[in-house]
Amino acid sequence: MGLTSAGIEEAIDLLEALLEEGRSGDIVELAEHTLRVAEHALEHVDDSDGQMTDVIARLEDLHLDACRRARPDTVALAERLFAWELDGAWDVFDQAVVSYVEVLGNPGLARYRELAEEAWAEVPKLAPGEDSHERYRSRFRITRIMQSLAQCSGSLADRITVEERDLSSGYSFLQIAELCREHGEDDAGPRMGRARDGGVLGKSRPAPAHLPRRGVPPPRAKRRGA
């Protein structure tokens, strides 16, 4: 493990030096290649000490810095970020749109949103008491992407709309109430109370103990779907 992470760290040192020499366009591509190398390494090592996780975080920072300097094709960048975030085995570029919103600009953000909404349209609504075996796999990833887009929009309505796609757990209603309170909606409590008194919360599935809190990314050292 030590040699693997150390070797990639040395490569990052070289990439950072090249970035300072004005090679930002090359570094975008090279950083993505090195991220794939790091992901492959995670398939075969125990990262309980977090060394490879730190390497990936450093590569993500390098990639973002290079994109800010190089100003690559934003539509193509949006497509790569979205595909990586949605389908990657690990959590590389998790909630990418939050970090890359300024780099993507309007064209890139529009393409990213278009791809997200296409995938989101395939996600069924879950009513209280219903469940989905995809909740912690593909559904979880596209939900986080939509949460990120709603966060960037700054719209409470957008954020609630995303959360309302899954009302299978009483925890979902608590998330919505928290969002309302964060935006100064004083009637959030009564609304949740009416839902509870009407039996909605009572019939909901309990939130699993391992369900991450809203806005907190899952541990990077665990493979998705494991």
Report what the structure shows.
With 226 residues, this protein is mainly α. It folds into 2 domains: 1-71; 115-226, no CATH class. It has 9 helices and no strands. It has helices at residues 2-20, 24-42, 51-70, 74-87, 96-120, 138-153, 156-163, 170-182, 188-197. The longest helix is centred in the middle third of the chain and has 25 residues, at 96-120. It is globular and about 55 Å long. The two termini are 21 Å apart. The model is unreliable at 189-216 (pLDDT under 50).
Brief rundown of the structure:
With about 230 residues, the protein is an all-alpha fold. Helices cover about 65% and strands about 0% of the residues.
- Figure out the total of helices: 9
Class computed from helices, strands and strand pairing: mainly alpha
Helical content (DSSP H or I, runs of 4+): 55-70%
Total strands: 0
What is the element string, with H for helices and E for strands?
HHHHHHHHH
**Biggest beta sheet attributes:** none
Taking all Cα atoms into account, the compactness measure Rg is 20 Å
Outline type: globular
Mean pLDDT: 81
First and last CA, distance: 21 Å
The overall number of domains is 2
Fraction in beta strands: under 5%
Unreliable stretches (pLDDT < 50, length at least 5) are: 189-216
Element layout with pairings:
Layout: H1 2-20, H2 24-42, H3 51-70, H4 74-87, H5 96-120, H6 138-153, H7 156-163, H8 170-182, H9 188-197
Helix pairs in contact: 1-2, 1-3, 2-3, 4-5, 4-6, 5-6, 6-7, 7-8, 8-9
Features:
single chain; 226 residues; mainly alpha; 2 domains; 9 helices
